[in-house]
Design brief:
Low-confidence stretches: 1-14
Distance between the termini: 45 Å
InterPro entries: CSS-motif_dom, Cyclic-di-GMP_PDE-like, EAL_dom, EAL_sf
Number of strands: 19
Helix content: 40-55%
Pfam family, one: CSS-motif
Strand order of the largest sheet: 10-11-13-14-15-16-17-18
Membrane topology: Multi-pass membrane protein
CATH class of the largest domain: Alpha Beta
CATH architecture of the largest domain: Alpha-Beta Barrel
Bound molecules: ligand C2E, calcium ion
CATH topology of the largest domain: TIM Barrel
EC number: 3.1.4.52
Largest sheet: 8 strands, mixed, barrel
Radius of gyration: 49 Å
CATH superfamily of the largest domain: EAL domain
Subcellular location: Cell membrane
Number of domains: 2
């Protein structure tokens, strides 16, 4: 701070620490991997349920078909069920032998099986194999029984229908058919258990079944109603199989997740580096003194000579050459280096003006970014400049562009009011090109309006009226603001603007920007000359 201006390096910290950057990289690396695990976890469950549903569909429709076949065979006997057994037998035998899946067809009288397709006339109480279910209920019935008197080692599905004379017809389906079907569609190496239950009876193959079963492993639970009664099918999954599916999915998808993770890490790392390097480059440029200021003269129309200059920052990088101001100013704003950069600019201006001899009231225009304007540092920074240039005090003009929005307008207002009290003037730069022109007029005290080059360009030789430009001029005059026209390149533009009361003109017609030394030299020789003399001299 030997020259009274703040030290720019105090603001030059990176927005993220190294640890935070590393943490971001770790999170970015983990995100796709975790997402892959979660997706595979749920996908494995979905795959299991989908496959079990297909198996269940096959079982249910096949069981329904078997029941229907047996029932049709049984129904052909029902109308003649009151015949004596001898007369029924040939029919019973043919039906039982020709109907698929059917083991026997029997006729029941009261509670006793009295005629069987396989054994002829007999007398076996129903209660010996069907303790709970009786045909006396009235309607059709269906039950899974643990054994039948003739085949005690196997389960059987019995379906029946009452007939005239207190009789009933009953078809017996061997449980083995159902079991084989179940094993084929839902094998035990794929599923923990498949349960087929018929109205209240214990399940098919119940003796083998593992109990109790964890309900969370239930994959399918379906119920089917047939003319003979309803049955239910449940399929439970195997933990090992789910695990195998999960691993298979992970093996398929994980390489992609790893690749995505690597790509993201690389992108974020590059972004981090390019951001920090852009920031670093600007900071190194400040430290290595690669910036300098050029001054573009401002012509005072009523004074008839040079009445000021705009300070424009320049960056010449030793290895790359000149960087366009639009480019590095935007980068500095994005990387939040604009405040230290402007503080550096103020130092450079203070150094240039320490030896510059200018007329009293000379306007020295300096561009300030919105971030700086809303910062509490602004007044100190400008005051420091005012103190250093007090010997040959130029009139400081702060140019605020309205291309970028000012966020903290209250702080900005306070700053501008404090600085105006110190004699600083405020100019709205690029007026009419942003989206907040009128808001700015309402919020900020202003002394000058800078008409953007775009509006000046609407003046062509012979133009008598440029609607928007005229409106801006009228607006400025009604606000008592002085007008500066930027980018004036032709005499036609100059004459048009002067005729409408524009007080200052800046542009290539009068002079381009030049280094401090060149400007000092130019100012000594041409600074007091009228525009016509300057343009003639420049043209030579
Ligand atoms: P600006 O503030 O509108 O500056 C005027 C720009 O118009 C300058 O470009 C100047 O060289 C150019 N110019 C002047 N007269 C004419 C003309 O007759 N014809 C044409 N075609 N152009 C003319 P430059 O120096 O490239 O600056 C571009 C922008 O960069 C500036 O626009 C300003 O927004 C920004 N900038 C430059 N220096 C600084 C600075 O120190 N601080 C901040 N915050 N921004 C700066
Ligand atoms: Ca400007
Ligand atoms: Ca401008």
């Amino acid at each position: 701070m030997e020259d009274g201006l703040p030290d720019a390096s105090s603001d030059l910290r990176s927005p993220l620490t190294r640890r935070e950057r590393l943490l971001v990289l770790i999170l970015v690396a983990l995100a796709p991997l975790l997402a892959c695990v979660v997706i595979c976890y749920y996908a494995a469950g979905r795959t299991e349920r989908r496959e079990a549903a297909i198996a269940a569909n096959i079982i249910v429709s096949e069981v329904s078909a078997i029941v229907e076949v047996a029932r049709s065979a049984m129904l052909t006997i029902v109308p003649h069920a009151d015949y004596p057994c001898e007369k029924l037998l040939p029919d019973l035998a043919v039906k039982a032998a020709t109907a698929p899946y059917v083991r026997t067809i029997n006729v029941i009288k009261g509670d006793v099986v009295f005629c069987s397709s396989a054994f002829g006339k007999l007398s076996i109480p129903l209660s010996t194999f069907m303790p709970d279910i009786g045909h006396e209920r009235g309607g059709e019935w269906m039950a899974l029984v643990g054994m039948t008197p003739m085949v005690p080692e196997r389960q059987a599905l019995v379906i029946g229908k009452p007939a005239a004379g207190g009789r009933a017809v009953m078809a017996v389906i061997d449980g083995r058919y159902l079991l084989d079907l179940m094993r084929a569609a839902a094998p035990l190496d794929m599923y923990r258990q498949a349960e087929l239950r018929f109205a209240g009876s214990p399940p098919l193959d119940g003796a083998r079944m593992a109990t109790p079963l964890d309900e969370s492993s239930l994959l399918v639970n379906t119920r089917k109603v047939t003319a003979s009664g309803a049955f239910e099918l449940r399929i439970y999954g195997l933990r090992e199989r789910w695990r195998a599916t999960f691993i298979a999915l992970m093996l398929r998808d994980m390489p992609w997740a790893v690749a995505l993770s690597a790509l993201l890490v690389w992108l974020v790392w590059r972004l981090q580096n390019s951001r920090s390097s852009r920031r670093e480059q600007l900071l190194r440029g400040i430290r290595a003194n690669e910036f300098h200021v050029e001054y573009q003269p401002l012509y005072g129309v009523s004074a008839g000579h040079c009445d000021g200059a705009e300070a424009l920052l320049r960056w010449v990088r030793p290895e790359f050459g000149e960087v366009r101001p639009g480019e590095f100013i935007t980068a500095a704003e994005d990387e939040h280096v604009i405040v230290p950069l402007t503080q550096h600019l103020l130092k450079l201006i203070a150094r240039d003006f320490a030896t510059m001899d200018v007329r009293p009231g000379f306007h020295l225009s300096i561009n300030f970014s919105p971030e700086h304007l809303s910062s509490e540092k602004l007044t100190d920074d400008v005051n420091a400049l005012l103190e250093t240039v007090s010997k040959n005090r130029p009139q400081i003009v702060m140019e605020i562009t309205e291309r970028t929005l000012i966020k903290n307008t209250e702080q900005a207002q306070r700053n501008l009011e404090a600085l105006r009290d110190k004699g600083v003037k405020v100019a709205i730069d690029d007026f009419g090109t942003g989206y907040c022109s009128l808001t700015y007029l309402e919020h900020f005290p202003l002394d000058l309006l800078k008409i953007d080059r775009g509006f000046v360009l609407t003046i062509e030789p012979g133009t008598t009226r440029a609607v928007v430009l005229d409106a801006i001029i009228d607006l400025a005059l009604s606000l008592d603001a002085q007008l500066v026209a930027e980018g004036v390149e032709t005499m036609a533009q100059f004459d048009y603007l002067c005729a409408r009361g524009v007080g200052f003109v800046q542009g290539y017609l009068y002079a381009k920007s030049m280094t401090a030394d060149a400007f000092a030299q130019w100012y000594r020789t041409l600074g007091s000359q009228p525009l016509a003399a300057v343009t003639v001299t420049s043209a030579q």
